Amino acid sequence: MAYQTSEIVIIGGGVVGLATAIGLLQAGRDVTVIDGSDGDFRASQGNFGLVWLQGKGADFAPYAEWTRNAVAAWPRFAEHLAELTGIQVALAQPGGFEFFTDPNELADFSAALERQQLHLGNRISHEIISGDDLRRSHPEIGPDVVGASFCPLDGHLNPLRLLSALRTAVVKSGGRLVIDAKVTDITAAGSGFKLSLKTGARVGAGRIMLCAGLGSAALATKLGFRTRIRPQRGELLITEKLADRLPFLSSTIRQVDEGGVQIGGTKADAGFDDSETLDLMAGLARHAVRVFPGLADVRVIRSWGALRVMSPDGYPVYAQSPQHPGAYLVTCHSGVTLAPLHASVLREWIDDPSNTPDLEAFNEDRFALSDAA
Predict the structure, then answer these.
(1) Cα→Cα distances 100→117, 129, 153, 252, 280, Å
(2) What pLDDT, on a 0 to 100 scale, did the predictor assign at position 38?
(3) How far is CA 271 from CA 189, 211, 213, 224, 230, in A?
(4) Rg of the chain's alpha carbons, rounded to an integer?
(5) Of 130, 133, 132, the residue nearest 147 (C-alpha)
(6) I want to staple 176 with a disulfide (CB 3.0 to 4.6 A). Which of 32, 214, 262, 292 is the partner?
(7) pLDDT digit string (tens) for 22-37?
(8) Nearest-angstrom CA–CA distance, 264 and 277
(9) Are the CB atoms for 186 and 193 separated by under 8 Å?
């Protein structure tokens, strides 16, 4: 097969890889994105679609700052995608709630928000609302809710429209998108790399961006990265479409733009198993009804499990290989929220790391003395 060379090859055609590609293309780089098959574990097709700041980085100031910058950048990024592709991603940032039925959990989260506030100062605000006060403004909230937190910066979007917009934007910006392809091997070749694909094709690259989520693990080892990526399963329900709009947005209950209510919030270390479990699905339904009893008679029409991409400490990793300086690893579990920065700041980091000193905190050197790496 023909041998093709690109200035930069991005391995991974999900939200993280595509957003990174857009930034590089707009900087004039020659970019090829290699995407896997529909049978791969794809976080980009199974996530909750949140653009969320509340609680992020409470114990890691750089992540709090990084997320705050991303949330602020989303309106302009959504406009840019619409201008470039004609696709509206249904971004809405009305503010979001975290609901609690356990007073101890509410107290713990309140303390976390205070720590986040210390990191961000006046760049964030939040409110803790008692259950009684909450029901005065939202009478539909169930009696089991003891309280909630609210952050006016939180929002959500349609994640499948986002994925479609990013793919279209890459092509319209002059990038090449190779689909249904799997990279089986990478070797250093002179000042660049040679990639072998499962199809038998070979691709040359001056530089490589490894953004393949859970598919990055084997290739990361080949390139000398120490980060050990692991899956975390989340399960979701979606209801029939409702004519009435839900009066709130939360991190576990949201109404999508088409009208259905999406319910989620589970976390399980189940390896590479993305199947649904009846007990957790039932737990999701019970939680939703406790928060909003009006959902009790609404039909669930779909359910699924999806795997999140987790680093050892749960925070993003932006690393350059010490063995192969032209190879980069980008991995995170907040690809939707962080997309505007991946489409902008990362291109500066790749071309001139001195322009992005804050990313040093996300280097994988933090795992050097940790058994978790």
Answers:
(1) 20, 10, 19, 11, 18
(2) 61
(3) 34, 20, 14, 23, 8
(4) 21
(5) 130
(6) 32
(7) 999 999 999 999 997 6
(8) 13
(9) yes
